[in-house]
Design goal:
The chain is of the alpha/beta class and 316 residues long. It has helices at residues 3-23, 30-47, 50-64, 95-109, 147-157, 204-209, 299-314; strands at 71-75, 114-118, 129-132, 137-139, 161-164, 172-175, 180-183, 213-214, 224-226, 242-244, 248-250, 255-257, 262-264, 267-270, 272-277, 280-285.
Length: 316
């Protein structure tokens, strides 16, 4: 509990004990005593987070309500120009373009959904899914404490779905104080060429999920592979057949591959998958998008289809 709220609870208890005694043995007016008790109870409720917890529970029930269309929030805190290297990493669609894409796909498959742009400071609880359109960058409103990152993890832990459209999820945090992206992944020294070492597995979200992410080739050479949807997702109609791979994940217990895994030695890898965390999931695409990766131009459409499929099943 926050220290200030602990002090408020302590103060509320002290005032309540005095006020309770004042109702009977002291000459305090009854109305004054009752007013003091009411104010004290309000302070105690605030300090214990009771109103916030109750409101979160209501929003969660609304999120699961089958008679209401699912709600998807698209983060929109940063510059909307996909060519800005300080706010976008390996993706080419702005928040408004993602909203339009999801709406168009929903109409095509005949499902009702509410999609809107939201800020990272708003509550995530009413939303069945929250999509980060900035690829490997995310908007961090509390750079010192990584408050937004922890908020994302808490939302998923309580049953939400967070969508990472490209690259390592939350590899860079955008710091509003300096208006640029910085590495959220800890510095681990220098390699033989004097380049900083920031391993994928130490990236905050990757570490929380226990993922093993690696490059397909040690020399960063082009790696293009054929892909098909895993059996569980074969009902999703899409014609994407070949992608260029720059990052891939080992298929371990909490990884549910959307692209059928590729076997390399004793390990299986994929580039598009769900990763379970608490009661919720991350939907993660590690594939880069942009002019340098024309093979992956169909990924926004496929991500949108898988997202719609996931939120509709979540409520069924």
């Amino acid at each position: 509990m926050h220290p200030m709220k602990a002090l408020l609870l302590l103060a509320a208890g002290a005032v309540l004990s005095v006020a309770a005694g004042a109702i009977w043995p002291t000459p305090w007016p009854l109305k004054v005593s009752i007013a003091v008790i009411v104010v004290t109870l309000v302070i105690a409720a605030y300090a214990s987070d009771a109103p916030a917890k109750s409101w979160r529970a209501i929003e969660k029930l609304r999120r699961r309500a089958r008679w209401l269309p699912p709600r998807v929030g698209v983060l929109c805190d940063l510059d909307s120009d996909p060519n800005n290297p300080e706010t976008f990493a390996w993706t080419i669609r702005s928040p408004s373009q993602w909203v339009d894409e999801i709406k168009k796909l929903a109409v095509a498959i005949g499902t009702k959904i509410h999609v809107k742009q939201i800020e990272a400071s708003s509550s995530f609880e009413p939303y069945s899914a929250v999509l980060n359109p900035y690829g490997g960058v995310y908007p961090e409103l509390e750079p010192d404490a990584l408050g937004t990152l922890n908020k994302i993890a808490d939302y998923v832990n309580r049953g939400g779905l967070f969508v990472n459209v490209a690259d390592i999820p939350c590899y860079w945090s955008h710091n509003p104080r300096i208006n640029r992206k910085i590495d959220a992944t800890p510095f681990m020294g220098f390699d033989e060429a004097g380049r900083p070492i920031r391993p994928f597995w130490k990236s905050p979200i990757v570490e929380k999920l226990g993922l093993w992410i690696r490059k397909p080739n040690a020399d960063d050479s082009n790696c293009t592979v054929d892909v098909e949807l895993a059996d569980k997702f074969a009902h999703i109609d899409d014609d994407l057949a070949r992608v260029r791979v720059d990052r891939m994940v080992v298929c371990e217990r909490n990884v549910e591959p959307i692209f059928r895994p590729i076997r390399v030695g004793d390990l299986s890898f994929t580039t598009f998958f769900f990763a379970g965390y608490g009661k919720g999931r991350f939907l993660i695409s590690l594939l880069f998008m942009g002019a340098t990766h024309p093979e992956n131009k169909g990924m926004p459409r496929l991500i949108g289809k898988v997202l719609l499929d996931a939120v509709s099943k979540y409520r069924s």
